[in-house]
Structure prediction request, 271 residues.
Amino acid sequence: MSTESTMRAVTTYRLLEMKNKGEKISMLTAYDYSMGRILDEAGIDVILVGDSAANVMAGHETTVPMTLDHMIYHGRSVTRAVTRALVVVDLPFGTYQGNSIEALASAIRIMKETEADAIKLEGGVEVIESVDRILSAGIPVMGHLGLTPQSIHKFGTYNVRAKQEEEAAKLISDAHLLQEAGCFAIVLEKIPASLGTRVASELSIPTIGIGAGGGVDGQVLVIHDMLGINNEFSPRFLRRYADLCGTMKGAFENYIADVKSGDFPNEKEQY
Ligand code: KIV
Prediction:
């Protein structure tokens, strides 16, 4: 009897191999089936179902309002489409910081209800008990240090983090702590490039940067930003690969004009 494999082709082990070979890791966010399918077909290594869905899908100013049910909905929509890329789902604010038992319950819901491959959470020493407990249940954990948007009300700004020596030292120490706990990778967000390079060279697990320079092991961007769907956001680290806002607006304007003029539908477009 043969059983069909439900494992995706890119595994956490494969990411480690990529780091060891010096092969850069590509990661982008997705929140729905269609985008997940296109990304997977394009050959992306990792798809992050990020809680940035709060901003780009729901129009919230911060990621704080995201709930576990929201993340499960987005996670499940993406995993239905993906056969190759590793799929990571964010644990949203308030579902893992309070206590590690709640953190494990949140991670188990994500894994069971979305069929993702791993979860991501923000923070270092403050959340290490939750990281330990989730890992002890066999759930792969990706860390996230530097600018951690779930703590925006503590930071007060989205400025570059860890420019001062004290904050940089804490970030390095947190990165080692997450690695020793057993995290398979760490996202480094909006930190000086020299710090990103240092963390990447000190750690044996992959580091994936967003605004952390080119010395890290991979890069991640929010898909709406890199596609130019959201064209109000233009930090220095963002490279736009398309102007979908312009393309989509043009298509919508053409459609509206065709409907108004009676040009659509024409004879071939009806039964
Ligand atoms: O939620 C998200 O999209 C993220 C990325 C910015 C890394 O965490």
About this structure: The chain has a mean pLDDT of 96.
